């Protein structure tokens, strides 16, 4: 059993369709077992849902309304607390089922390691898969203090799986020297500091390809998103991240799934991080699903 079948709690705004009737499935991946600084992202998915009640269902940016979509919110997965390996296995199995059923997956994290099993299941279906990664951190480590299952490793794992030249990172402003050397020598694309402009230049290169988009909320400056596990000064504003999402939405790439991770409610009593994340999810839903 992946979910609590009796769950009757908050769902993302207008995500009220049944599984069978939904074309899009939102699901929470409440895992934060490998974080190296501040835990608590397992509470992120539900807080994003709660914040969504303050949103308009209409996007003035995209001139689209959530009523135009068939969205099912499955709730949070019942992951075995503390068991990263088993949790990853469960996420991968569930994502494979979503793809088999023709659903568009929208994941809510959780630490960034939860993106890894989703990417792995995506690659099984889409041999030409590319990944757009928007984050403050490179996440290119092979391990963290001896642990290969770490929130600092998912993009390195993705590079090794689909090939570095198929991975495109934006907004990066933190990492080990070796991570930046790997990015340079491997041939992957990495844009430091900025997101929207370098992304716009790169999108034509991905036209027609299946692309998975993963966004770590800490790409934002802590002034805009203090509620995250590893806040990193010098980030972008919410407006630039919206611009990047809309650039992807207006491009010719084929987005096949997406996630947003690392919202940690405990460090943001104002809830501005969850409020921002809920808006980004709305724009991703309306923009990425054609």
UniProtKB/TrEMBL annotation:
Positions of Mn(2+) binding: 112, 135, 137, 139, 216, 218
GO molecular function, one term: agmatinase activity
Cofactor binding, note field: Binds 2 manganese ions per subunit.
Pathway where it operates: Amine and polyamine biosynthesis; putrescine biosynthesis via agmatine pathway; putrescine from agmatine: step 1/1
Cofactor(s) required, per the database record: Mn(2+)
Catalytic class of the enzyme: hydrolase
Keywords attached to this entry: Hydrolase, Manganese, Metal-binding, Polyamine biosynthesis, Putrescine biosynthesis, Spermidine biosynthesis
Listed EC numbers: 3.5.3.11
Keyword Hydrolase among record annotations: yes
Superkingdom of origin organism: Bacteria
Keyword rRNA-binding: no
Coiled coil: none
GO BP of this protein: putrescine biosynthetic process from arginine, via agmatine; spermidine biosynthetic process
Catalytic activity: agmatine + H2O = urea + putrescine
Function per UniProt: Catalyzes the formation of putrescine from agmatine.
Protein family (similarity comment): Belongs to the arginase family. Agmatinase subfamily.
Name used for this protein in its record: Agmatinase
Organism: Salipaludibacillus neizhouensis
